[in-house]
Design goal:
Blueprint: H1 16-28, H2 41-51, E1 63-66, H3 68-78, E2 86-91, H4 96-103, E3 107-114, E4 120-121, H5 123-129, E5 134-140, H6 152-165, E6 169-172, E7 197-202, E8 215-220, H7 227-237, H8 245-248, H9 251-257, H10 259-284, E9 290-292, E10 300-305, H11 316-327, E11 332-333, E12 342-346, H12 351-368
Parallel strand pairs: 2-3, 2-5, 5-6, 6-7
Antiparallel strand pairs: 1-8, 3-4, 7-8, 9-10, 10-12, 11-12
Helix pairs in contact: 2-9, 3-4, 10-12
Length: about 375
């Protein structure tokens, strides 16, 4: 229950139309060579159409293809920071943000997400953390590890801080198509005409193909503020000579020509994830010493550990280590994400596997409870 790979158990499969599109490209033998480092023109055009909204249109010139979502993040962060700079990142948050920043001689400053408010960002705290060396605010929505979905009010608050402080947004929206009943995902770029937004997405989680390594960067900059950064992003794309050309070559057919099939696939896929979330909530609510924050999207959930409820468990790290040793259930300690005394679960397994895992967690908590 620790790995954020929805393909592990084989119950969730890539859409057939994507598989067929790639097979066609393999047989055509036209996509076996190098492409432009920023991506194949047809792929960039397809992504621009797919990621555009009525209020935040994109062209192919605004798109840079990357080696997965992580590659897109690396280009975005590396293109904005110099040694001694900082970026604001969420806590709890994905550790890769810090790794990329520090590899460039920069560092991160963490703004809090509030568990008691379904992991909405604390915008007031965020504004107080901005320094003269802050080069971007990173927004991850929906969230890994929290599974939360930011409200429009929260997003507008973040944009207000960015506009006031004159800093761009890096929007990690890799889970943007994956929200549950009653939740609405709003691309942050669709809410502003003045704040530059560098949004990233990709195929990994949306299409259940994380190993195919195709992501993208979308530069929303209608005021032309990021001209130098755009060139920097382009230069950085040359470090690996572009992402997978075979998979890129299938994007035009999948993202534009087969749009209706894609919508139906997403509906079925997200319903399966939502069932996993409901199973998680229903069963883990029975466990002693734990409390839950219901996820609104993605494939993750954060569970709070109350050490005072246990006779021999001091924190989230001990909880995860002992649970693995005694019950062979592997969860990630919240400390990995800057959230001590929480742990993260991934609920993409088949329901019978989830039920077995949660039965073991319930037994474990019962055994160690005061």
């Amino acid at each position: 229950m620790s790995l954020g790979d929805p393909t592990v158990y084989g119950n969730l499969l890539a859409p057939e139309q994507l598989t067929e599109a790639v097979v066609q490209q393999v047989r055509s033998k036209r996509a076996n060579g190098y492409g432009h480092s920023a991506g194949l023109p047809a792929a960039r055009t397809a992504v621009a159409k797919f990621m555009s909204t009525e209020t935040s249109p994109l062209t192919s010139d605004d798109i840079i293809m990357a080696s997965g979502g992580s590659g897109a993040l690396e280009i975005a962060i590396s293109g904005l920071v110099n040694e001694g700079d900082n970026i604001l990142v969420p806590r709890p948050g994905f550790p890769l943000y810090q790794v990329i920043a520090e590899s460039n001689g920069a560092h991160v400053i963490e703004y809090p997400l509030l568990a008691e408010q379904n992991w909405q960002a604390d915008v007031e705290a965020m504004e107080a953390l901005v320094t003269e060396r802050t080069r971007a605010i990173l927004v991850n929505n929906p969230s890994n590890p929290c599974g939360s979905v930011f409200s429009q009010e929260t997003l507008k608050g973040i944009l207000g801080v960015a506009e006031k402080k004159r800093i761009p947004i890096i929007a990690d929206e890799i889970y943007g198509e994956m929200v549950f009943t009653g939740q609405t995902f709003t691309p942050i770029a669709s809410l502003t005409t003045s704040v530059p937004v560098i949004a990233m997405g990709g195929m990994a989680k949306m299409f259940l193909v994380p190993g195919w390594r195709v992501g993208w960067l979308c530069v929303h900059d209608r005021a032309g503020i990021l001209q130098e950064a755009r060139q920097g992003f382009m230069n950085l794309s040359q470090l690996i000579l572009g992402s997978n050309t075979l998979v890129q070559s299938a994007l035009e057919q999948v993202l534009t020509n087969d749009r209706e099939s894609l919508i139906e696939f997403n509906r079925t896929y997200v319903a399966a994830l939502e069932n996993g979330a409901k199973c998680s909530m229903n069963m883990l609510s029975k466990a002693k010493g734990l409390s839950l924050v219901e996820p609104g999207g993605a494939m993750y959930m954060m569970v709070r550990v109350h050490p005072e409820a246990f006779k021999d468990i001091l924190d989230d790290k001990e909880f995860a280590q002992m649970l693995l040793k005694e019950e062979a259930v592997f969860v990630l300690p919240g400390s990995c994400f800057g959230a001590p005394n929480f742990f993260r679960i991934v609920f993409t397994a088949p329901e019978e596997k989830l039920q077995e895992a949660y039965d073991r967690i319930i037994q474990f908590c019962e055994r160690h409870a005061c």
